[in-house]
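Record type: ASSEMBLY
Status: queued
Input:
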Amino acid sequence: MMQGELFHNPEVKPAPSQYPASIEKYEVIIERSKCSMCGKCAEVCPTCIGASSIDYEAYQKPNGYLRIAVPKISCTGLSCQRCVRECPDSALSVKISPQYLALGDVRWTADLIMSTWEQAEVGRTSRKYEYRVGDSGGGFDKLRFDFELGDEDISDGERSDTEDCDTSIVLNKRNDGRPETSIPIPVYSADMSYGSISLNVMLARAKAAEAWNTFTSTGEGGYPDELIQYKDHVVTQVATGHFGVNAETIKRSKIIVLKYAQGAKPGLGGHLLADKVTPDVARIREVVPYISLFSPFPFHNVYSVEDHYRHVQLMEDVNPQALISVKVSTPIDVDMVAIGSYYAGTHILQIDGGYGGTGAAPDIAKKNIAMPVEYAIPIVHNYLVREGVRDQITIMASGGLRTAFDVAKAIALGADGAVIGTAELVAIGCKRCENCERGKGCPSGIATTDSALKYFIDVDWGSQRIINLYSSWKKQWAYILKKLGLDNIRELRPSDEVKFKKGRFNHMAHLDHLK
Amino acid sequence: MKTLYERYHIAVKEAPPTVKLPPKFLVKRYNNCTDAQECTQACIYSVHETKEDGKIAEPHEELCRGCYMCVLKCPKAAISIGINPEFEKLGNSYFSPDRIKTIYFEAETGKVPVSGAGYNGPFAGPGFDSFWFDFSEIVRPTRDGIHGREYISTSVDLGRRLQSLEFDENKNLVSKIPKTIEIPIPMILDAPFNCVASSNLQLALAKAAAGLKTFAIVNARQYSSDLAPYKASLIPRINAEEIEKFEGLVKKSQIVEVMFEDSDVEGQLMKVQSINPSALVSSRFIYDEEAPERANALAELGSDIVHFHVDDDVVARDPDTIKNAILSVHSALVDKHNRDKITVIFSGGIAEAAHVPKSIILGANAVAVGVAYQIALGCRVCHENAHGQGCTMKLEDGDVELATQRVMNLIGAWRDQLLEVLGGMGLREVRRQAGETGRAMFYDDLEARIFGDKE
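Status: finished
Output:
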């Protein structure tokens, strides 16, 4: 029985930013020395400048420029400029704001960050920002679905009613007597430890996972008691540090993930720097506070595929009903790892590509070790197809998947679904400033356990933002399926080997190889 | 008591820069600020502070890390954060502002740069950015070197290696075992650009080389008596036609670098050997298309080391040059069965820690670090353009200790990052990484295999 058929999408509710100001793409500047304060700009502006948003008191201060404060609705930018044209004093200018230019990077562009915020707020995208691809110059950013080439007819839009659209996937395909475990969207949420993120963030993610009837993961830092209320949606991670891992937490979960490697720092163990090992974190990890924690690499009881089999068996001995997920990164022989893992009894193979997220990792490892997941997915898929076992194991891709389109492309390259980390954090306010590892941790109160910062994220607000993001993503998946004439998202995954010819394969094209 | 075993360790310690970098972020407060104090509460890096009179002080931009909390929490939207144009002007497209910032961090702290969030750069790029290191998943034994749980060697040998041993009919060894010198890191310090090569800089480099137990190359013409105490750590670089002139230096050095242009290589090598038979000879050439052939000739002539330099400006214009240069020399030597007869050193375009193991995996035995340490000491890679009218790198007498420490910190941080890579790859020693292109994953190959027509 497909649970997907019974499932109702959780409700989208507005979850606006919790801050008084916002990061805007455009800003309007009034040159004080020229302005005669006639108010014409406020009069003519179709959306952005309400009279009340000009702060006259501040205006009386000497020197410099006055920026229009707190725009009521975001300025539509360079294409409008009505206020500039109609100002009798020529005192106004509209420009791309410096914070937009400083926000993000080529993988998570300012547009991707702001479109993710928008989706988290209202559960859909306005198309005002680029929401499908980043600017990294390769991989997902160069892959397009056929309908995206040339003029895309967007008249059917992203379908607002996605209730009947089947985007579900099954996590256990082994038919081994354990639950089949279907999730209504082809994603679950990534491993992030208590310590790397705050308890409130964990709870928000777990609550969203419950609403979407999918999963989130404890990460390496133990299983806080507060999460027990969501235990049917929480994956217990067993990683090399074994922090807070015991028979009880293994028995509690429907899925156990054995973390062999992490894409951001393959071949290296976890890092949690001293400042973030607060007494609370230390207690649950059973360590001394304020010392840096470096997990070993690899599992010292697993040096061969036979050891790996024993390791999987060990989990089954403790919890015979749990599905076993194995998280690996992407060496050149990732296909060999995959087949070994299949024969060891794994239900889910999570391939975490080299550009995956992390709470702290050496920069040299993030950039240079292991291959991007865009290559690893087809390598693993093709090998498992050739070995005749592809349909008995679920492949989840992770490591640099930012958007609904990235997930769909990963599926079209041979994965069954995806594991999402950073996008959820962006949904609750992350700006990718990359300061998660140091001192108190995240200034936005996400990747932190600081005694004050950890209360920044309200659990209900955070979970609603993540629910909204996935609602928006589901609309986009429904749109993609409709455009491609597919009934459900499982049909998007190729049944045969992925083979690009002249830059094309099935529904996809790679812009650099198109002939 | 005599220590029987000493683990190699680079003594890093905090060494602040004498020439400061411009801050990356500009923080601007518009005049609709009402001193509401939200920014001072929001900022955990102390960029915004309240003055005694209750007003908010000018922002400390150098502390800003671009988190935007002040921007978002300001009730008047009166704060703006942007990238500082002065920061963006640093260096060039290759020695980029962010690379310079990283070098500064490494030189100041000696620590491995660690950050949160996933990789933020392009999917791939030219040169050293066109391949990734393979790593060991679960089936190869651990090599956890960085945290000292297991020893990973970063030593390399300078000099020739015999292909085989020969014995006479009485089973006596007749092969002459060539001398090699082991250095504990696959890095030596290259001679600085002429525009910055002051005697203080030479001294700092000599001291750093001694502290690191490696070598610094020094232009023979600038070899002063101050450097004498460090002669065991110095490689004098001598123009081929001036060997006799610097006979004294040749005599007292363990390694001599002869800089060739088109001169008679064999004759000059013999000249050095006749002056000091125990010295290793490094033959230095500017890399050109004849380099692969030349490397084979040098190996056969008995040069212990060949040092090819690729001009940093050339690498900046086309980063593929250094990658192709190393690959072509290495494979030419392998083809002619000469690879182990000579030590290959490359320099040029070594701009970040990853470039050391990347040069090695392409086929170099070691690299000579040049511009990177100069940047750590204040050079802005203007290549003499601005020399005399604003070179920022000045080394006063009192700065030598600090400069020495900054160079050691930089190399210390790079060595620790080398350990991260070797650990990730499951390698026990860096010697085994040389030329191991099978453990590198090339963008071109993967693109062709997955998205191209090849399978």
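Annotation: Chain B touches chain A through 82 residues (CB under 8 Å).
Annotation: The CA atoms of residues 54 and 411 of chain B lie 46 Å apart.
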